[in-house]
Design brief:
Blueprint: E1 2-7, E2 12-19, E3 23-31, H1 33-37, H2 44-65, E4 75-81, H3 85-102, E5 106-110, H4 111-117, E6 130-135, E7 140-147, E8 150-156, H5 162-172, H6 179-187, H7 212-227, H8 233-262, E9 266-270, H9 277-290, E10 293-296, H10 306-318
Parallel strand pairs: 1-4, 4-5, 6-9, 9-10
Antiparallel strand pairs: 1-2, 2-3, 6-7, 7-8
Helix pairs in contact: 2-3, 4-10, 5-6, 5-7, 5-8, 6-8, 7-8, 8-9
Protein name: tRNA N6-adenosine threonylcarbamoyltransferase
Binding site for substrate: 134-138, 167, 180, 276
Enzyme class: transferase
């Protein structure tokens, strides 16, 4: 099958072509970061309107790169959720319109399943089972994956996701949106040991996360240093490093526990925060000590993209799953409600 993948869950318009026999043929991405930076975060209405403008030109660009035409496409996968409902509707509307015009099957895909399966696009993909750390602006979860659609939630954040915490810490430090990469860049200039931030929920058993207290600790540190007239570029860098180190250490500790609890020796890291170099290095060190292996997608496939949606959709379309006549858009959608590949599904991926 030749699958057109469409990703419009938030502020990136992603399109890709994936062939079930030849692999990924082409992909293209347009990021709205510059537009939303003026507002300090994503404006849903602006995001939806920009998807409308960019989506079809990106589809044509990907087809040109792959030397294909629309008539060559045999299936379409689009992000059905979670995400911003207006943005999801844009992708779903285009997918269903093209599917109807071309008389081919269409399927709404779970955004986080796309992230989880993104490492499958690499030359050395992980085998099942594995433990997945899904870490992004909206999610921080540990999941045991026995197969596509066979997911057991091991733990998740009880408040903010790690990526969201990065963005809010960036605002405290006077950094622009998106905050995660900017905090990481500033942390490179930081000095080890100047500040020691707490590692939340690591002093108790379990696999849950919490980053709200860490945000408060960061804010209190920033406020104290500003009041003491010690607000220098070096101070900002030291705080950035202390914050990043606290998040990384927390994620690593929980991943080690998850591997032990699941009796597994493969760890998959996915989502936008998985591009963080300090986190990658720390997880590889931990895994080496545990006799485990770490897998992750190339940096451009860590953030939202069409390739991951095309791949995930291809697996389910090959299994016969497809949408009914209506567009599926689910702003909130627990991943552990997804059907397995053998389960019949005629109306999106609703259970």
């Amino acid at each position: 099958m030749l699958i057109l993948g469409i990703e419009t869950s938030c502020d990136e318009t992603g399109v890709a072509l994936y062939d079930s026999e030849r692999g990924l043929l082409a992909d293209a991405l347009f990021s709205q970061t510059d537009m939303h930076a003026d507002y300090g975060g994503v404006v849903p209405e602006l995001a939806s309107r920009d998807h409308v403008q960019k989506l079809l030109p990106l589809c044509d660009e990907v087809l040109d790169r792959a030397v294909c035409t629309r008539s060559d496409i045999t299936g379409i996968a689009y992000t059905a959720g979670p995400g911003l409902v207006g943005a999801l509707m844009v992708g779903g509307s285009v997918a269903h319109a093209l599917g109807l015009a071309l008389d081919i099957p269409v399927l709404g895909v779970h955004h986080m399943e796309g992230h989880l399966l993104a490492p499958m696009l690499e030359d050395n993909p992980p085998g099942f089972p594995f433990v997945a750390l899904l870490v992004s602006g909206g999610h921080t979860q540990l999941v045991k994956v026995s197969g596509i659609g066979e997911y057991e939630l091991l733990g998740e954040s009880v408040d903010d996701a790690a990526g969201e915490a990065f963005d809010k810490a960036a605002k405290m430090l006077g950094l622009d949106y998106p905050g995660g990469p900017r905090v990481a860049a500033l942390a490179e200039q930081g000095r080890e040991g100047v500040y020691r931030f707490p590692r939340p929920m690591t002093d108790r058993p379990g696999l849950e996360f919490s980053f709200s207290g860490l945000k408060t600790y960061t804010l209190n540190t920033v406020t104290a240093e500003q009041a003491a007239d010690n607000w220098t570029e070096q101070t900002r860098a030291d705080i950035a490093l202390a914050f990043e180190s606290a998040v990384v250490d927390t994620l690593v500790i929980k991943c080690r526990r998850a591997l032990e609890a699941a009796d597994c020796d493969r760890l998959v890291m996915a989502g936008g925060v998985s591009a963080n170099r300090r986190l990658r290095a720390a997880l590889e060190t931990m895994a080496g000590k545990q006799g485990a292996s770490v897998f992750y997608a190339r940096p451009e496939f860590c953030t939202d993209n069409g390739a991951m949606i095309a791949y995930a959709g291809c697996q389910r379309l090959l299994a016969g799953q497809r949408d009914g006549d209506r567009i599926v858009a689910k702003p909130r959608w627990p991943m552990d409600t997804l059907p397995g590949l053998a389960d019949e599904c005629l109306d999106g991926l609703a259970p």
